[in-house]
User: Which sequence fits this backbone?
């Protein structure tokens, strides 16, 4: 028996653009005519890859030639920008729609959580909905009955079990829905970003459950998310989709790196900011491997490199990087005066580097003001010299981040002191 | 190359998702595995329907009663159409009860894909569970109406001295229900499969069913029709159902086993065609709906 849970072979998926309805009949006839002459489907030739921006033809490839193997017990993270084909891939895997070409081989029962609470009916009670939802997800009545207590316990809705779910708070609703799905015990679980909803407590439970499922049960999980923190924590391997094609498959951290770098927005700026004495040519961010990155990740080791050219030798240079969030709320300062690392003599050209071991920023947009003094004289001052984006990363090593996206992240520990 | 060699060591895959399904690749075993879901859908329909209303299940009966009343006035009293010697209320009501089951099953199943696009787009389960559960839910509705029909029959038998013949033929009732359900389901899923692409059909269904009713002996007995019209009406698979339904309960009309066999075969063919088409569409409809 092989240890492969899912094998995708040359999977492609084509969608038709524009208004469905007009012209379908003529297209159908066209296709049918081509088929009886033994020719290729004429509508299948258009487009090389999924370029949503410049969609010329009527058809677009949402996925193109995907080949992938997922091992049993593996948690595979699927990342990519909007429109990269993540959701389409999940739809194919959960059999909501079929592929245009290729085939998917699956070993074991597959269950998908593209949206929790599918098929919940507001008029039915919690108990009735557990049974209905469970049955929709493929469980037998007897199976659900066996798990009922566990499900109710996990969701924490015991008191309201015989109340119609329309009276539930939205939190209870989501908890109940996830509880049913989580107790489904499939061999392969396909999860979309559903976990983004619900409070922190519930997210913790959900992520914990998914880890249990994979560790104890040896089950396979396919996880699609924009939240790098949970991908980093959960997944051992990652797949980076770009324009409907697999761009990179590797260990999670490498794939996330790749994803961050390919961000189309370039941060590197030609700066011609100078007064008489110094000119800053550009500012770049480097990751721990010394590679340029364009988008940063919370908790990542980062180096900010500022290359300059100067007219003269500069003495006693003090440089300050002042970090602000997008509301221009002050966050923190990196100053070589405070760290006792003054640059006493600067060559005519070179670069200054500032290492931040653990970027203490939550996801969001930020910018930096730069001030440089030489010999106690201000020689450079630029507000919003550079701006950059941060994506939520695994700062605390727990996969969790505060929901409040303001301020900074501080590393800390908790312990307990008992009295007596 | 390594991939190819791996392929030759063929593994036991529990499922293979392919682009185009074969016409006859119908997974009835899977449908059977989901039988609990059918039961739960039926329950959901029933609970949801009457929980939101004041009169509850009474609505099941109000519509056919009012229709009967209207038929009595318009076709019975004004147009003075024959009712084969039966009390007008019994004649029309029995026809309407039999017809309603067919018509409601057809109408409700005919937009399976469109009304359930949301849930179908999120999770996979055998799509056929949906129309099947609709037909079974409608059976509940039929049962309630049938109960009222029996109450009417008892009233006429005891208080109006109307002779009501029950015979061994009455045992045909389950067969009639089966054929009606099969026809409703068959036509319904054929239409629902086609509406995923050609939405025009949705508009056709409502009044198409209305027109169909007039070529079914509901407001007139088959015995009052002759010539070419009779031939056309006999082509309608519902004709023998309604005629037999009246005969086995009320004793009017006839049982024609050839006609009944025709309806049965018609039902089987429609149902098979429907299942094939539905099965074919099921896989790709999310992209066209």
Assistant:
């Amino acid at each position: 028996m092989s240890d492969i849970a899912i094998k995708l072979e040359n999977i492609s998926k084509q969608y038709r653009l524009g208004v469905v309805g007009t012209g379908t009949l003529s297209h159908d006839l066209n296709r049918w005519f081509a088929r009886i002459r033994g020719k290729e489907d004429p509508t299948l030739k258009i487009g090389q890859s999924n370029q949503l921006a410049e969609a010329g033809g009527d058809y677009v490839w949402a996925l193109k030639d995907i080949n992938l193997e997922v091992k049993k017990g593996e948690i595979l993270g699927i990342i990519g920008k909007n429109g990269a084909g993540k959701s389409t891939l999940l739809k194919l895997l959960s059999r909501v729609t079929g592929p245009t070409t290729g085939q998917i081989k699956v070993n074991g029962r597959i269950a998908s959580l593209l949206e929790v609470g599918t098929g919940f009916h507001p008029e039915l009670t919690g108990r009735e909905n557990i049974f209905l939802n469970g049955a929709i997800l493929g469980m037998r009545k007897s199976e659900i009955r066996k798990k009922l207590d566990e499900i109710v316990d996990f969701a924490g809705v015991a008191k309201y079990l015989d109340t119609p779910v329309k009276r539930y708070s939205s939190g209870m609703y989501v908890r109940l829905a996830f509880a049913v799905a989580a107790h489904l015990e499939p061999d392969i679980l396909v999860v979309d970003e559903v976990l983004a909803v619900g409070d922190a407590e519930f997210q913790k439970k959900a992520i914990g459950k998914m880890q249990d499922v994979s560790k104890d049960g040896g089950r396979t999980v396919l996880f699609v998310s924009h939240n790098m923190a949970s991908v980093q924590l959960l997944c051992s391997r990652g797949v980076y989709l770009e324009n409907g094609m697999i761009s990179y498959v590797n260990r999670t951290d490498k794939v996330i790196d790749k994803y961050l770098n390919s961000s189309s927005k370039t941060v590197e700026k030609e700066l011609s900011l100078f007064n008489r004495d110094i000119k800053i040519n550009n500012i770049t961010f480097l990751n721990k491997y010394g590679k340029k990155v364009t988008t940063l990740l919370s908790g990542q080791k980062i180096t900010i490199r500022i290359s300059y050219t100067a007219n003269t030798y500069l003495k006693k240079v003090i440089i300050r990087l002042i970090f602000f969030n997008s509301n221009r709320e002050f966050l923190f300062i990196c100053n070589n005066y405070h760290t006792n690392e003054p640059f006493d003599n600067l060559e005519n050209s070179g670069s200054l580097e500032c290492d931040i071991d653990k970027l203490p920023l939550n996801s969001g947009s930020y910018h930096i003001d730069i001030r440089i003094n030489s010999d106690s004289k201000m020689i450079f001052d630029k507000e919003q010299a550079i701006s950059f984006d941060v994506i939520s990363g695994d700062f605390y090593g727990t996969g969790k981040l505060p929901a409040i996206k303001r301020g900074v992240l501080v590393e800390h520990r908790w312990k307990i002191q008992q009295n007596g | 190359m390594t991939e190819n060699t791996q392929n030759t060591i063929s593994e036991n895959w529990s499922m293979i998702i392919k682009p185009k399904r074969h016409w006859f690749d119908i997974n009835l075993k899977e449908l059977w595995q989901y039988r609990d879901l059918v039961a739960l859908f039926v329950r959901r329909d029933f609970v949801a329907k009457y929980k939101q209303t004041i009169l509850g299940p009474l609505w099941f009966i109000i519509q056919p009663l009012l229709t009967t009343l209207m038929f009595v006035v318009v076709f019975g009293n004004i147009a003075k159409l024959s009712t084969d010697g039966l009390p007008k209320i019994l004649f029309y009501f029995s026809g309407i009860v039999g017809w309603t089951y067919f018509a409601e099953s057809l109408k409700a199943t005919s937009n399976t894909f469109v009304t359930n696009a949301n849930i179908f787009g999120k999770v996979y389960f055998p799509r056929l569970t949906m129309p099947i559960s609709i037909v079974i839910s409608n059976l509940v509705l039929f049962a309630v109406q049938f109960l009222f029909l029996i109450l009417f029959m008892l009233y006429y038998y005891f208080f109006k001295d109307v002779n009501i013949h029950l015979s061994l033929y009455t045992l045909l009732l389950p067969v009639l229900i089966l054929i009606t359900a099969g026809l409703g389901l068959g036509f319904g899923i054929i239409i629902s499969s086609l509406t995923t692409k050609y939405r025009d059909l949705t508009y056709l269904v409502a009044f198409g069913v209305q027109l169909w009713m007039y070529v079914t002996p509901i407001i007139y007995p088959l015995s009052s029709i002759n010539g070419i019209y009779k031939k056309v009406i006999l082509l309608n698979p519902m004709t023998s159902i309604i005629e037999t339904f009246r005969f086995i309960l009320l004793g009017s009309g006839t049982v024609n086993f050839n006609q009944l066999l025709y309806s049965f075969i018609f039902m089987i063919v429609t149902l098979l065609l429907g299942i094939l088409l539905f099965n074919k569409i099921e896989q790709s409809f999310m992209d066209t709906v």
Residues 19-23, 45-56, 264-272 of chain A have pLDDT under 50 and may be disordered.
